[in-house]
Amino acid sequence: MVSHSGLITVMQRAARKAAPRLRRDFNEVEQLQVSRKGPADFVSMADKQAEATLLEELRHARPDWGFLLEEGGTVEGSPSKPRWIIDPIDGTSNFLHGIPHFAISIAVQEPKYGGGWGEVTQGLVYQPLTDESFWAEKGRGSWHNERRLRVSSRRDLADALIATGIPYKGHGDLDRFDRIMQAVAPEVAGIRRFGSAALDLAWVAAGRYDGFWEEDLQQWDIAAGILLVREAGGFVTDFRGGDRALTTGQVLAANDQIHSKLHKLVASALRS
Predict the structure, then answer these.
(1) Would you say residue 203 has pLDDT above 50?
(2) Nearest residue to 197 (alpha-carbon basis) of 173, 168, 221
(3) Does 63 have pLDDT greater than 60?
(4) In this model, does residue 94 exceed pLDDT 60?
(5) What is the strand order of the sheet 141-144 is part of?
(6) Which end of the chain lies in a sparser environment, N or C, as judged by fewer CB atoms within 10 Å?
(7) Taking phi first (over 0 means left), then psi (-120 to 50 degrees means alpha), and beta for anything else, what does residue 25 get?
(8) What HEC string does 171-212 produce?
(9) Nearest one of 169, 163, 167 to 199, comparing CA atoms
(10) Residue 206: count of CB within 10 angstroms of its CB
(11) What average pLDDT does this structure show over 196-211?
């Protein structure tokens, strides 16, 4: 049995409490009530109910902690305590189209001395349909259920399978994406767009993907996934190579060799 902190137990319990309703709703997706938050940006009753379940479970476990919620916004807690960052369904468009690729994402973020928010210390990406739990704790590694994760050991871009996200109506800069794609695509073995940044990062941590890039992401999309990749021995930066991926919404993730090569391609594309 893998040893982990009580927080991981709390997070897994909350995710598994929300999962049965999501599985049921996924199988009856045509019956769901869906509303529009913005251009091509949808929220279903399934999102709201899953988020309510997660909030209830996590608040019960840590009543003085705050929340950053995709649907519910910011819920203030004690300023000296951590907060939860939650995406109840990362991959809502997949969910609503009956595509079985989406996840619950939960992260713990520590407060900074003097105010604001600092590092993420625990993260969970949970796939309700497959019961896959990708989790990480700062300094304790990344895990898939009870198996230790390591990022891919591939060194050559020509052998690398890279994941990304593609801009769509009202989201992202298609011109910038095209420039990056034109730089990266001829150099790699393949590019995939599956529609869940949380799972993309979890799969980089698991070595299923060799790298990932995307921008215009929100903190709840990537907070847990960034920790997963780093604790699996990978590198995560923004497009400038800095340590501001969580706040800029720009993510470039891979092992050390692939990351360096991808970063050069991305930087060159943006300079052009």
Answers:
(1) yes
(2) 221
(3) yes
(4) yes
(5) 73-75, 66-69, 83-90, 103-111, 117-127, 132-137, 141-144, 147-148
(6) N
(7) alpha
(8) ECCHHHHHHHHHHHHHHCCEEECCCCHHHHHHHHHCCCCCEE
(9) 163
(10) 22
(11) 98
- 124, two tokens: 């969970």
- Identity (one letter) of the amino acid at 72? G
**Is 0.85 surpassed by the pTM of this model?**
yes
Structure-block tokens of residue 72 = 């519910």
Token pair, residue 67, equals: 């929340």
Instruction: Using pLDDT thresholds of 50, 70 and 90, give the confidence band for residue 60.
Output: very high
Residue pLDDT, tens place only, 138-168: 999 999 999 999 999 999 999 999 999 998 8
CA distances from 109 to 15, 24, 68, 203, 213 (A): 17, 31, 10, 22, 22
Identity of the residue numbered 152: S
- CA gap 73, 68 in Å, rounded: 6
pLDDT at residue 272 tops 80 = no
> Which amino acid type is present at position 62?
R
Torsion of CA 94, 98, 100, 101, to 10 degrees: 0
d(CA 190, CA 89): 26
**CA diameter of the chain:** 51
List of residues 6+ apart from 258 with CB closer than 8 A:
152, 154, 155, 157, 160, 210, 211
Cα separation of 230 and 207, whole Å?
A: 12
Q: How many residues does the chain have?
A: 272
Cα(198)–Cα(226) distance, rounded to whole angstroms? Answer: 9
Task: Tell me what percent of the chain is helix, strand and coil, each rounded to the nearest 5.
Answer: 40, 30, 35
